[in-house]
Design goal:
Helix 3 (54-87) runs antiparallel to helix 13. The chain has helices at 2-13, 29-47, 54-87, 91-96, 101-111, 119-131, 136-149, 151-160, 165-189, 210-242, 245-252, 255-269, 276-282, 288-297, 303-313, 315-340. It is built from 16 helices and no strands. With 341 residues, it is mainly α.
Length: 341
């Protein structure tokens, strides 16, 4: 009987379910390697004859220009976001925010000016703040403002629009007002049953290396946002080259249609906030107010953010919050842009 008990203990100690799964090469790694080496080359050969076409050259120029201009800001922004997540204690946010929710909302929105973070990082950070007792309205104001008004984004906007400081100021004010209005709307109309925060960890974990957490966070955010940057640059280049000028003029010629068109485009393209100013600057056929709308709506409402919010807070929240944010962002952009631009 004693031997049976000892063998049972040893079996439990070496239970395979408790061990980490072995990490090896995928089963078809050789086929994947050959495909990765052959397919790009085959694609280049097939399209090689058309690379000298003016339209292709224009597409390549716009795509590379947007990507190269935006990449340093994306790199710096994701590095700062990872550093804040790994090195700044979570209780700092609780100490800085006022106890009254109505006052905590604008303070949390203004905190985005000095606490940079990309859209992908702001959602789990907001979830972590709610889990630590911060009122959801303040967490949502920070979620919206941090990717839109941080120093990296404002600097990138100033470089993308040289000689136009009013565009930087308009983006700052329109984004802050949108974040504050959405926080107050949640205090007024929000319901607890819409919000189902997922249990996810952000910040430093005791016993873990802060530098390792920084490296993993930076790697995740940069690769994730960098992919959307490349896709957005390609989409912007395709839009500039493939869309007939008559179609662009039909939207650009109407003040309201141009604003709505670029708002929808920002939602679909899902360009990272550190890079969207360069995409907006490339849309030279549209009015300044329409391009401001593109830069205000994009960091707050897009396809990837909707997916992140639905997975973190629940679909009921994401549908209502994203729809309301889009409307408020467009209205604030038009009002602020109409005055400053």
């Amino acid at each position: 009987m004693r031997a049976i008990e000892d063998s049972g203990i040893r079996a439990r100690e070496t239970d395979p379910a408790d061990e980490e799964p072995a990490r090896g090469l995928p089963r078809n790694w050789l086929l994947l390697l050959v495909g990765a080496a052959v397919l790009p080359g085959a694609a280049l050969v097939l399209v090689g004859r058309s690379l000298d076409e003016p339209a292709v050259q224009a597409w390549r120029t716009v795509c590379l220009a947007v990507t190269v201009q935006a990449m340093p800001f994306l790199l710096l922004g994701t590095a700062l976001s990872g550093a804040i997540n790994a090195f700044v204690p979570a209780h700092v946010f609780n100490r800085l925010l006022p106890k009254r929710p109505a006052l905590a909302v604008p303070v949390a929105g203004a905190a985005g000016v000095v606490l940079p973070g990309c859209e992908c990082a702001s959602v789990p950070v907001a979830n972590s703040l709610i889990g630590r007792g911060v009122t959801p309205a303040a967490a949502f104001a920070f979620l919206l403002s941090a990717p839109a008004v941080n120093p990296i984004v404002l600097t990138a906007t100033a470089i993308a629009f040289p000689g136009s400081p009013e565009m930087v100021l308009a983006r700052l004010l329109a984004s802050l007002v949108t974040a504050a209005v959405m926080g107050w709307l949640w205090l007024w109309l929000g319901r607890a049953e819409w919000l189902k925060p997922a249990v996810r960890h952000t910040g430093h974990r005791p016993g873990h290396s802060r530098w390792s957490e920084f490296r993993r966070g930076f790697q995740h955010d940069f690769l994730h946002a960098g992919g959307f940057l490349v896709v957005g640059a390609m989409a912007a280049a395709t839009f500039n080259v493939a869309v007939p000028r008559s179609v662009v003029d039909a939207f650009a010629g109407s003040p309201w249609l141009s604003v709505l068109f670029l708002a929808v485009l920002a939602i679909v393209l899902a360009v990272c906030s550190e890079a969207d100013a360069f995409v907006a600057a490339s849309l030279s056929g549209f009015s300044p107010v329409a391009r401001l709308t593109f830069m205000v709506v994009g960091p707050m409402v897009d396809l990837k953010l909707f997916a992140l919010q639905a997975g973190t807070f629940g679909r009921a929240f994401a549908v209502r919050f994203s729809a309301a944010t889009a409307v408020v962002a467009v209205v604030c952009s038009v009002l602020v842009g109409g005055v400053l631009l």
